[in-house]
Amino acid sequence: MAYLTKAPRGTADILPDESYKLRFIEKTVSDAAALFGFKEIRTPVFEHTELFQRGIGDTTDVVQKEMYTFEDNGKRSVTLRPEGTAGAARAFLEHGLFNEPLPQKYYYLTSCYRYEKPQSGRLREFHQFGVESFGTDSPAQDAEIISLAKHIFDFFDLNGITLEINSIGCPECRGNFQKALRDYFDARKDELCETCLGRLERNPMRILDCKSPVCSEIAKGAPKVLDYLCEECETHFKAVQKYLRAMDIDFTVNPTIVRGLDYYTKTVFEFVSSSLGAQSTVCGGGRYDGLVSELGGNSTPACGFGMGLERLKMILEAEQKSFPEDERPDIYIAPANADYSFEAMRQAELLRRDGIYALTDVSGRSLKAQMKFADKKKALFTLVLGEDEIKTGKAKVKNMDTGETSEVDLGALSEKFTSLLTAHRICGASESGVISNLTLLDGGKK
Ligand code: ATP
Ligand code: MG
Fold it and tell me: Hey, whose CA ends up nearest to atom 24 of ligand 1?
């Protein structure tokens, strides 16, 4: 039955030949977050459905069509998180983190769930690196999170990533803009899709985000939000741009960006990659000053972004960046036959206690088959344990790259082997994979 042997559509298994790449990406982005003082937060994979309805907004695509919502056995409606911001804001409130020094800056690496049509760069279970800052309305904070995302793309030395920014104002100036939009779309309402007709009354700004070709064509001529900003929003937006310029961060102002979630105010931004196909946005974010009060807290300005890890990995692969090789076993200890298996296990155990990556036979293979296996695993060294070795207490360690052998004392294997390994790492660094991340990433191009 296919149900038993096929994962649900839109999900992806991450197998060992790929997981090391994601681990590298995850380490890189979390190290970058740490440089900016963002601390890790982990929130539950499911939340009360109301949190997302309230937080993300009833008129958004995410809430209307994309959520994995179900009733649990206690008859409560719960939803798998479609994004990370609402959960972080809930935790900020629930734990009184507003009493801590502000801004509170969090980052997360998390899975998200959206019932979307699976295609390249669009999954039903995907992963995000996200950051959120709660408690400051300064444009410096908007610019700082943008610079964090930029820092990550620069670290990976990506080409063709552009930053587009916009301001969608605050509830005050947005009122006038919504009115102008409603008038504009009302005049062409016969042409709008069914969903947008519904949006016309409740949230006409959402029409600007519609993916249908007809609606997006009509949207091109719609009033531009930047013409409606109040003085405060305009000053804020100008200051964000000034900070970006001060940090040498290139950007273009794109007045059509509105983002897909209702909680945004003022700054919104997207990083777009020319190496991705149709799903070209790798990172999207902005300011959401209204979210915390929408959830029942005191008014708390905030901003953040979400970066799709699958999309980031796709760009790295499209641009042929190399990842640090998955770690090779330091040593493979091969018992010549089953009689020596106990000693092999003991020696491997002793080495591991000293932090050495050691493999030995756990399948009862012949010596020949073991050597083949060690080769496939790309073990740096091998050691055979047989009658002679046990009798004399001495064995030969073979460097699998050079074929060189060295004699070691089995009574103090770890000590001798550690010095062999250190020498190998210093001389043969490029083979053993012990190079700084940056050099490796350049490796693809040089
Ligand atoms: P899109 O326009 O691509 O649908 P979005 O506006 O819905 O994106 P956000 O909610 O802002 O996206 O999420 C932030 C980032 O998460 C996106 O820029 C993208 O990189 C990633 N992302 C969003 N939805 C998916 C998905 N279904 N599959 C893979 N990655 C996704
Ligand atoms: Mg989307």
Answer: 122
For ligand 1, whether the C-beta of 59 sits within 6 Å is no
11 lines ligand 1 (CB under 6 A): no
| Nearest CA among 54, 57, 83, 85 for reference residue 68 | 83
Place of tokens 């009033």: 223
List the domains of the chain with CATH numbers: 16-170+230-318 (3.30.930.10), 331-441 (3.40.50.800)
Split at pLDDT 50, 70, 90, the class of 206 is confident
108 C-alpha to ligand 2 centroid (Å) = 19
**Of all protein residues, whose CA lies closest to atom 23 belonging to ligand 1?**
308
Nearest CA among 279, 286, 278, 329 for reference residue 305? 286
Identify the residue whose C-alpha is closest to ligand 1 atom 20. Answer: 308
Q: Distances from the Cα of 73 to the Cαs of 49, 52, 70, 298, in angstroms?
A: 15, 20, 10, 33
pLDDT at 21: 94
Q: DSSP 3-state assignment of 280?
A: coil
| Residue 23 confidence class, pLDDT cut points 50, 70, 90 | very high
